[in-house]
Write a structure and sequence with these properties.
The structure is a single chain. By secondary structure, the protein is mostly helical. It has a domain of 120 residues: Growth Hormone, Chain: A. The protein is built from 9 helices and no strands. The longest helix has 30 residues. It is elongated and about 75 Å long.
């Protein structure tokens, strides 16, 4: 039992409630959580369409599996670099660059004409996604401050871990059952 709690019990005074979290901090938390959610969603969402992607790009399953593997390897590789890059350019700036990079890489994935280009775009997307998540936590901790950091990270952590279970329901039914181009 902490010293504050035991002294409050002895004096009969109720413990001091935690300070309210300002609306501006909640707004920043929502935006950062959305970025982390999108990065998490991309970790497994592509798995649903690997057969269709392979068919459309005339690639075997052994090649299309690299779409997911390349993303995850790049994401994991970007995590250690995020601290160093945050100190170099600032965590807020790095988060914005990561969001922009993630968005551009997502567009490149959509436009990829071959399996090799798609895998390369997924590597870029994974790097940006890894920086997006880790730098977002740093930004949240800085904005929330030490007194509110635990509550903010606990609440924003829930949507960050939800994407993998949500993947299959989030994909339209037709894209899961369509055997190839021209399906509707």
């Amino acid at each position: 039992m902490s010293t504050e709690a035991s002294s409050a019990d002895r004096t009969g005074d109720p413990p001091t409630p935690p300070a309210a979290i300002p609306a501006a901090v909640w707004g920043i938390a929502a935006v950062i959580t959305f970025g982390a959610f999108m990065s998490g969603l991309d970790t497994s969402l592509v798995n649903v369409g690997l057969n269709t992607i392979g068919h459309d790009l005339h690639a075997p399953l052994t090649s299309t599996q690299w779409i997911t593997s390349a993303y995850l390897l790049a994401l994991a590789g970007a995590l250690p670099a995020s601290g160093w890059l945050s100190r170099r350019v600032g965590s807020g700036r790095l988060w914005l660059w990561s969001l922009g990079g993630f968005t551009i890489a997502s567009g490149l994935c959509a436009l990829a004409p071959s399996i090799d280009m798609l895998i390369a775009a997924r590597v870029l997307q994974g790097i940006a996604g890894g920086l997006l998540v880790s730098t977002g936590i740093t930004v949240l901790a800085t904005v929330a401050g030490p007194d509110r950091m635990g509550r903010i990270l606990a609440i924003t952590g829930v949507p960050t871990v939800l994407p993998p279970p949500w993947d299959p329901p989030s994909v339209p039914y037709s894209s899961r059952t369509c055997p190839g181009p021209g399906c509707s």
